[in-house]
Model the fold of this input.
Amino acid sequence: DTGVSQNPRHKITKRGQNVTFRCDPISEHNRLYWYRQTLGQGPEFLTYFQNEAQLEKSRLLSDRFSAERPKGSFSTLEIQRTEQGDSAMYLCASSRPGTENTEAFFGQGTRLTVV
Amino acid sequence: QKEVEQDPGPLSVPEGAIVSLNCTYSNSAFQYFMWYRQYSRKGPELLMYTYSSGNKEDGRFTAQVDKSSKYISLFIRDSQPSDSATYLCAMRGRSQGAQKLVFGQGTRLTINP
Done:
């Protein structure tokens, strides 16, 4: 499969627990994005990597959230001390380098439920 | 006020109808405009991608961008029940510092057989 892969697809966790999601981008896509989508809303930008460098972080990304992309390949998004308000779909997307024809392709998402 | 406004619908039309979906935006720096289709509990799927103003056609889908009015549209001809989904408009700037996509709220569309 050559698409963006996200794992796990679903995660149910108790409030206060830590969770980690993984994203494997499309091969040769050097840009990787994380978005969060709540019910009835469009995706909201969280953070973005070019290769292993984290170039932009949204103010939505509180200090409980951390993202990494070691070696510029897969990425992980960790949420510490989860809260009920963290329940959402977490989407990963990747795109090719350059400023032209750099449309982003999304994975199927990880649906997080905090109980 | 949000940077990108999209009527959330829901919009329900009979099979075969022409569907018009629209978004307005406020940031004049936006240069790239996309339409994504999202089925329930799935990730967004890229449908159309347009740079700057103009029209782009792909099969039954036509995307239009009017930068002077800050208004973009997606038209679906001969709509099919399989087109039932949420349609998201998204846009971004051109510079290295403007790579994130800004999405509309999404319009939920149902095509009735």
